Amino acid sequence: xxxxxxxxxxxxxxxxxxxxxxxxxxxxxxxxxxxxxxxxxxxxxxxxxxxxxxxxxxxxxxxxxxxxxxxxxxxxxxxxxxxxxxxxxxxxxxxxxxxxxxxxxxxxxxxxxxxxxxxxxxxxxxxxxxxxxxxxxxxxxxxxxxxxxxxxxxxxxxxxxxxxxxxxxxxxxxxxxxxxxxxxxxxxxxxxxxxxxxxxxxxxxxxxxxxxxxxxxxxxxxxxxxxxxxxxxxxxxxxxxxxxxxxxxxxxxxxxxxxxxxxxxxxxxxxxxxxxxxxxxxxxxxxxxxxxxxxxxxxxxxxxxxxxxxxxxxxxxxxxxxxxxxxxxxxxxxxxxxxxxxxxxxxxxxxxxxxxxxxxxxxxxxxxxxxxxxxxxxxxxxxxxxxxxxxxxxxxxxxxxxxxxxxxxxxxxxxxxxxxxxxxxxxxxxxxxxxxxxxxxxxxxxxxxxxxxxxxxxxxxxxxxxxxxxxxxxxxxxxxxxxxxxxxxxxxxxxxxxxxxxxxxxxxxxxxxxxxxxxxxxxxxxxxxxxxxxxxxxxxxxxxxxxxxxxxxxxxxxxxxxxxxxxxxxxxxxxxxxxxxxxxxxxxxxxxxxxxxxxxxxxxxxxxxxxxxxxxxxxxxxxxxxxxxxxxxxxxxxxxxxxxxxxxxxxxxxxxxxxxxxxxxxxxxxxxxxxxxxxxxxxxxxxxxxxxxxxxxxxxxxxxxxxxxxxxxxxxxxxxxxxxxxxxxxxxxxxxxxxxxxxxxxxxxxxxxxxxxxxxxxxxxxxxxxxxxxxxxxxxxxxxxxxxxxxxxxxxxxxxxxxxxxxxxxxxxxxxxx
Length: 818
Hints:
Blueprint: H1 7-15, H2 20-39, H3 46-59, H4 67-74, H5 79-92, H6 104-111, H7 116-129, H8 132-146, H9 151-167, H10 188-204, H11 206-212, H12 216-228, E1 236-237, E2 240-241, H13 243-257, H14 261-277, H15 283-298, H16 303-316, H17 322-335, H18 340-344, H19 347-352, H20 359-372, H21 378-391, H22 394-411, H23 415-429, H24 437-447, H25 452-462, H26 470-487, H27 502-514, H28 520-536, H29 541-550, H30 557-571, H31 577-580, E3 587-590, E4 597-600, E5 605-606, H32 619-625, E6 637-638, E7 703-708, E8 711-719, E9 726-735, E10 742-751, E11 755-758, E12 773-781, E13 790-798, E14 801-809
Antiparallel strand pairs: 1-2, 3-4, 4-5, 6-10, 7-8, 8-9, 9-12, 10-13, 11-12, 13-14
Helix pairs in contact: 2-3, 3-5, 4-5, 5-7, 6-7, 6-8, 7-9, 8-9, 9-10, 10-11, 10-13, 12-13, 12-14, 13-15, 14-15, 14-16, 15-16, 15-17, 16-17, 17-20, 21-22, 21-23, 22-23, 24-26, 25-26, 26-27, 26-28, 27-28, 28-29, 28-30, 29-30
């Protein structure tokens, strides 16, 4: 068989290939020749063939069929064969393949070989791909070589020991005696690998960390000799003596000094020397300075040393190298919480980085700028960040807008400045703000009573002819509806007044309604605003009625529902319109574990949507109560019809009734009206303004409907004077445990032959130790005088847990239903 071509000729041939297909053809032809040679057990050219296979492997072609040939080369007595064999093993084998275990005996023999270069090959291979089984078998030989006087073998044995410790951490103590004299070695290669070994042991074992802390003075001495020594051509890199060893020692010092006062004190002086004596004109010096800064920040260093470290990072920000600037910004971001004042000195340099062309640097600079904002620099920093928001790429706008909102809320010097800043963000990047930006700004404006006229004029001018920023349009629509009378009255003293008529305000809002850029939510804001203006404007009410009636047939269901309700308000309850659409009270924002809520100061909780859309009264309690419809089984269950909480009498008189229900106002404005229902007959039918219910009848005893886990529910009974079929049940909930029960909700369901109405409870929290009760009224209409049955559902929070229970009440006294 002719001699195979040499590796150099193969490389030259492959490089002449013009296409990928031509290259694959050459590779396949050569692989076939190599396989034939392997089958013939030709030892003469095995080394050459494996070398060619390794080159093909590096090009990405399969070379697994050469694995056993690598083992044969390792077993050879020739050094050249062993070298290629071990190289092939490191490239083609790993611990997932059982073939590698066949190498264990060969490596063990070579570790005891008389030639240091053969021993070095075995150490390199074991340190590269040795499995945990191989490491356990050969750890003894590695430990012996770690104690040898040959520096060539010691440095390779130290690196091999690192791999052994990573694979089998319990063998760490085996290498502890051998580490005693490693730092006394003069050879820099041995010193370097020894420091790597000590670092690995300290990171993996707290006991080793405590043991090696006594080596801090010795490490400090080695580092001092490195920075004070003269020129050494063997170790010099750009004028700095062995920077690789310096970096490794600094990393080990960082680990040893962390959370240890004595070790930190011992290394303070040398860290200061490294920080002041290292040349910064070359990248090598910057690498050492960066490691020094990380060490200073991680140990318990002196305050002056920390300031020095931050000043080094500040100098890095002025470097032309983008990588160095990025590293500096990242490091400053980590230290800004602990050394805020020192980082503040470099604020102007950090802000300049916002103008960098590199997006990574720009993002880090933005994050660091927000971390530097405080009450003293809020105006200047916001000016720079708003300028950045104007010019930055779209991917930055959402994070930048969110950061500005948070900073303004925390450090705003005045409400006017706060409102102006948020409006500027909405004008610049309204499409990128978070969903809660609109309700938050509305809440802020509502609470700034002296700023209403100023704000509505600013918003009116901001959206003239431009509806692209939807959140801004939503806030402007809400404010024009709420404070439209201030907009046309020229009451703004702080802003140059704008002459606006009622027609112009309605023109803007109608334009929002028909604009293609307006989202469904925005149209809802605009329609509600137009409806509010019917009580604030005097000359345009007919136009408002016409606009509202048009949208009663809108294909947008939400818009249609609003319009129908508003039409009903005009036609049936026009005398209540001014009360329903009166100005929103001052709101207080409360942060909970869930979404942000807006709580009114009169104690009634309103949802976070801040529009004045009059929803059907009691809609949510109905949906909750109807969850109980299937509790009694069958189809004989009637839905619960709750009554909305009694609200404060409106200025126009009367109660706020369901706009879409067939409810008639029967009482005069001076009295509290009771709703009446014609179909079907209900429990309030025929009730007059006389006292509605008897006192508790002496013959109707109270009952305990529920008593469990410290919660007790008692029922007391009343009968109606005018309608004997109506029973009024008053529940009293008490709590005998040592902690309050919160978020208490009582729900009930009755068979279909009954009608049931739940009124609002007196509270949602039951005090502990029976110190107070919650009361709630249930009205039951029982026209057929059947025995009363009820299924109840209780939910509440107690001791940090959500509790829920179901119970059936069948022991109603006969007097309550007969």
